[in-house]
Amino acid sequence: VWIWSKAKFINRKFLMEELYQRFLDGEDSQVAQEDDPFWDPVEVVHLGSAHIWLQSLAYCMKFEEQVEFLNCDGLEEAVLHIHINPCSPTGQARGEEDVVTDPVDLLGKRMDFQIRLVQCLGTKWLKEDAERGVQMGYRIYDLPSTLYTKPVWKIVNPQIDETVQFTTLNASQEFLNYLQTNALIVDLWGLQEGCAELSCSQLNLMVTGEGHILVDTKKTPPLMDTGQIPELYLKLLKLEQETELLRNINRVLREENVLLKESVERTSSSQQ
Length: 272
Hints:
By secondary structure, the protein is of the alpha+beta class. It contains five helices and ten strands. It is flat. It holds the Pfam family KIF1B.
């Protein structure tokens, strides 16, 4: 199976036309394999993506769900069983007593959490050909490279069961905003005989002394006093609330203005 990008297809189309023209002109149309527009090395195939919202982490709450992998046509390709759990530095799961009502309570503190990819269910790619395999990959926040699971071959409902623990030593406001507004994107890749498996270089990943992967490693700007961040955050939140209130007032006034104009027009027409 090969899936070409638009740019690659256009390039190959020109090569095909050139090769065909050489054939029509009676020239030698034999080309080396690497120059053959109809040949491609066997590659991994992007099957689909699953989006897992991270808002629960901003409140130190665990998350367990089955999420669809959707392909480029928006159709289900498989189902991902995933756990995302806040934990202690030693990997112990956080309890209900650790839940926060406002993410600002986590600002400047150490946060540990685990992402566990449990299983991939009903994979169409594997149903079509039992000799195929799959891998998954994802990247979170400022992680410099994508993490990939180990390849699994010849199983329609492969058990992945891989857990990675992430740590931020000093949770920034940007990271907390990211958790509240972004989704973790997990990509599903199809493997076929002869293709190279996906791998991740660990050299550019920062880790803690316990071996957990560090995220949110950007330094706070030197002019920003970390003790002032909660106060600034609250001020910003208040300004946003006031802005929303003004928007609502403006909307009501516009509606009243429209009603008033209609009333004036009706009065004018009745007097005529």
